Amino acid sequence: MSVEKDEWLYEISAKKKLIDLNLKELWQYRDLLFLFVKRDIVTVYKQTILGPLWYLIQPLFTSVIFTLVFNNLGNIKTGGIPPFLFNLAGITAWNYFKVCLTETSSTFTKNQNIFGKVYFPRAIMPISVTFSNLLKFGIQLFIFIIFYFYFITWGGYDLTPNSKLVLFPIYVLMMAMLGLGAGMLISSWTTKYKDLNVVVSFAVQLLMYISAVPFPMSEIIEKKPEYSWLLEFNPLAQIVEGFRHITMDSGYFTWWGFLYTLGVSCILFFFGLIVFNRTEKNFIDTV
Amino acid sequence: MSIILTASNISKQYRLGLVGTGTLNHDLKRWWFRIRGKENPFLKVGAVNDRSAKATENYVWALKNINFEVEKGEVLGIIGKNGAGKSTLLKILSRVTTPSTGEIKTKGRIASLLEVGTGFHPELTGRENIFLNGAILGMTKAEISSKLEEIISFSGCEMFIDTPVKRYSSGMRVRLAFAVAAHLEPDILVIDEVLAVGDAEFQKKAIGKMQDISKTDGRTVLFVSHNMAAVKSLCTRAFVIENGSIVFKGNTDDAVDFYLINNKNEAHVDLNNREDRRGGKDFRFSDISIKDKKGVEQTNLLSGEHYTFDVRFSLKHAKDNIAIRLKFIDNQGVMRFLCNNAFTDTLYSLHETHKGNVSCTIPKLPLPNGEYSLQLTCLTSGGTLDDIENVLIFNVVGGDFFGTGKEQVSKQGVLVENSFLMVNQFKEL
């Protein structure tokens, strides 16, 4: 381990750079990222009987209830798509964002024990959560695909994805970036102001209802046009609606909306990462 | 020798009291100063880190202007009382938190033995945890793989290596964790003995491993300890931290001496004003001091060293058959041993000299590490002439009673010179 003269490996200093993404160090610790992802996946359902089946039960039951409440009782039209599948699509997309946000938003408070003892780039923690939840998302997507074909074969529906299906990976990326970005921001702020913890759980609940999960965007444009901006400028509504659009070729899609969402996702993610990296330096003193 | 680490002007400020009350207010002020390009206004205030003084300000300096350099391959000891700022310095060195001012530059990777077992997941097997723990400590997967066999055999958990760690005994868990930490190959190793939880065996193992690392591998080590014997035997250089500042830097022996002299509780105690005593007014102890071989007053003693307890008294009338008794009592209130001139010398006859002094010498202090108090009694055939409990409190901070270089850990009893010999061993037919 020979070191060149006057070449410092790193500095520990009081000064903070305004923008510090720390990507180089994140890359150095990629093995740790991989091991955290593996740990999360392996350990979550150890000693449960149904194991990963729980991933399926939650969206299925939610979809059934949504169909009952919004479509049967509330009479919301889904534009020729079976309401159950419509809800399942919305919930699948929404869930991924939700777990990314809620599970990363307590990063600092939940891991203060380990963070207080040893250094590694803290951003590894929330990023690993985002990756390990991809598995959950994959399983839920799989069940969505099964019902998709069920409705084509036995339901007599004519469902086809459209050519924009190639954008699917970008949609996943946008969900991850939005959830992760917001989660990192919240976890940074909760180190000092714990009030935010309380807000997150119910804010996410409310957010779902203005993100076009149980209803199509066309419904609100038709019935309450004065509130349609709430959905149009909501990147989550754009994602949920877009996800249904590319898989079932219905609903509202504009290239403007797509690019806007992509922009917001990137900005939120990088802003979150910068704030997170600033906080990690001495959050242990305030948490 | 090249310099591997420099710390310049390291200071760390903490807020006293509750974080939260007025936090937003201070945050806004800080932000207002920053956008105008000014320095954080709260860095100008702050009291010296002296726990005994009453808090007068909202901010305190846990560390203030720490400067030092570490050369490659040296073992640097960091000595200080509890709360002197050692752990804060370690936290900054291991990048858990940042200093409020100043900077540390390093040419090597820093790892610390204090986070043994950090990140162990109970559901994962021993093998999986080796990888996870190793990666948390900064090793790459390839590095861990290449040392996996070594780590497993060092831990002595071969049989259970594919069993979830939650089924391990606590001892096995510590062994496995230590095996991972011991196979880290950082350029600079930080060891905090205070935080190294575990039994005596584990601490011994940690110190043994540290000796290997520093002596055979020539790696740089920063060693924080209360155990003066360990510091003396391991470190090439040491510094003393007091109230957040370095008060002494130099070779190990001088630093240990400096620490011991400056951290005395009170080596010389005046007993004239003590009212909580039993006995008459004819005989009174007036003061007491503990002196080492060189005649220097001490309250931090080393086991196995030579000490003299010097007792002064005053009396009004001549007395015969006098015995002076010193009882050594530990902090649990249990007497460990006593010294009495009735056992070792003749009983004294005191004339009307009004004042006098008697000394009790212990050539080899038999007390293990701990805090002790002294009870002083003067007895005569007619009864107790004077008796004071807690005349002084002193610490035994280490030392090497048996001359073996090992620390004596014992919560009870005293150390007695002895020798072992394995006379014979044979198989029963």
UniProtKB/TrEMBL annotation, chain A:
Location of the ABC transmembrane type-2 domain: 50-279
Keyword Ligase: no
Keyword terms, alphabetized: Cell inner membrane, Cell membrane, Membrane, Transmembrane, Transmembrane helix, Transport
Family recorded in the similarity comment: Belongs to the ABC-2 integral membrane protein family.
Membrane-related topology note: Multi-pass membrane protein
Protein name (record): Transport permease protein
Bilayer-crossing regions: 53-73, 134-153, 165-186, 198-217, 253-276
One cellular component term from this protein's GO annotations in UniProt: plasma membrane
GO biological process: lipopolysaccharide transport
GO molecular function, one term: ABC-type transporter activity
Cellular compartments annotated: Cell inner membrane; Cell membrane
Species assigned in the record: Patiriisocius marinistellae
Domain of life, per lineage: Bacteria
InterPro entries per record: ABC2_TM, ABC2_TM_bact-type
Automatic annotation (TrEMBL), chain B:
UniProt keyword Cell membrane present: no
GO cellular component: membrane
A Pfam family the protein falls into: ABC_tran
Domain of life from the UniProt record: Bacteria
Listed GO MF terms: ABC-type transporter activity; ATP binding; ATP hydrolysis activity
Keywords attached to this entry: ATP-binding, Nucleotide-binding, Transport
Domain ABC transporter: 43-268
PANTHER family documented for this protein: TEICHOIC ACIDS EXPORT ATP-BINDING PROTEIN TAGH
Family: Belongs to the ABC transporter superfamily.
Name of this protein: ABC transporter ATP-binding protein
Species this chain originates from: Patiriisocius marinistellae
